[in-house]
Amino acid sequence: VDKDGNYTNSEVIFIKYEGFEGSQKVDLVVYPNPVTDNGFELFGKNWLPESKLQMRITDITGNEVHKDDFPVDENGIVQYYSKVPENLSTGIYIISVTDGQSQKSIKVLLE
């Protein structure tokens, strides 16, 4: 709006930022959440193809209670089933997964 009250609309443009060249945001989902059975599945995409992921489960105080490694397929897709360690009690835990370059953390409820 100008000082005299007149205005003109500018051209609207759309910009989509997809990260640096060759990079994509990794994705990871835990199912089910809350975890009610004796295990859960991890589903993910855009991970480093044919790499090995490291998973850490920590309690809310940051103490590591479980860790495991599992593979990523040639397309960067992850599908992995993990059993819940028998010694874990009901509560909130953090599942962190990394391939050495990217990391994703998810809060889960164990019932």
Name the descriptors.
single chain; 111 residues; mainly beta; four-stranded antiparallel β-sheet; three-stranded antiparallel β-sheet; 0% helix
Q: Write the element-wise H/E pattern from the N-terminal end onward.
A: EEEEEEE
- Total E-strand runs: 7
In quaternary terms, these chains amount to: single chain
Taken as a percent bin, the fraction of beta residues is over 45%
Structure description:
- By secondary structure, this protein is an all-beta fold.
- It has no helices and seven strands.
- It has strands at 27-31, 39-45, 52-59, 64-71, 78-83, 91-98, 103-110.
- The chain has a four-stranded antiparallel β-sheet, with no helix packed on it. Strands 1-2-5 form a three-stranded antiparallel β-sheet, with no helix packed on it.
- A hairpin with a 7-residue loop joins strand 1 and strand 2 (39-45).
- It is elongated.
- Mean pLDDT is 86; it is low at 17-21.
Helix/strand layout:
Elements: E1 27-31, E2 39-45, E3 52-59, E4 64-71, E5 78-83, E6 91-98, E7 103-110
What is the gist of this entry?
This protein is mostly beta strands and 111 residues long.
